[in-house]
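Exercise 7 asks you to align residues with C-alpha cells for two separate proteins.
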Amino acid sequence: MEFIYVPFIVILCYLFGDIYKTIFKKDEDKFKYIPLYVTIIGGVLGLVFYFFAPELIFNIQNPITALVVGIISGAASTGGNQIFKQLSNNSRKTKKAEK
C-alpha cells in the first residue's frame, strides 16, 4: 500500500490529457502542450497527496520529493498514452497491409 497513489496520479493525468484533447479537438496546435500540462498536474497531485496521506506515496519525508514523484508520474501518463497510440497505429497498418 505504500505506492497506491503513484498509479492513481498517472491515471488522473492520463484522463486529464484525454479530456483536454476532447475539449480542444478542433485546435490541434494546442495538443503539443498536453505533456507539459499533465506533468504540472502530476506535481500538484503529488503535493496534495503528500499533505493528506504521505505514508501512501512511498512514505515520502518532504514536499520536494513528493513534487518530483508527482512530476514523474504525470510525465509517465504521456508515455502511457504514446504506447496505446503506437500499438493502435501498428495494428491499423497491419490490417491495411492484409487487404
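Second protein for Exercise 7:
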Amino acid sequence: MAYRQDYILRMMEMMAEMIALFLGLIKKGDLQQANKRLNNAYRDFLKKDAAFFHQLPLDNLTTELLQKHDYTHDHLKVLSELFFAEAELLLAQNKSAEALVFYKKALTLLDYTEKQSLNFSITNIGRRNTLNERITTLTTR
C-alpha cells in the first residue's frame, strides 16, 4: 500500500511539474510546443490520445471514465490538470468557447475527486478558485 501511495504522489508531482512547464511555454508564446507536450502528456500519463478525452461529454464524464474505461480517481485528478492546461492553451489561442468547455470539465473532475477524497488540499482550493474565475469570466463575455 505504501508503494502505491508513493507512486501516486510521485505521479502527481510529475504532473505539477508538467503543468508548470505548459504554462511557462504558453506565457512565452510557444503555443505549438505547449500543444505538442500536452498531447504527449495525455499518452504518457493516461495511455490514450488527447482526442479520446476531448470527445467525452461533460454530463457523463466521471461515469464514462470510471465505469466504462476502468480509470481510477487518481487518473481523474491527472485528467483534471490536463484539461486545465488544455483550457489555458485554448484561451491563449483566442478560442474562448473551447476553453470554457475544458475549464468546466476540469472543475467537474476536481469536484468529483475532492468529494471522494478524505484529504484536505490547499492546492485544490486554489485550482477550484482559478477554474471558477475563468468560467465566470468566459461565461459573461
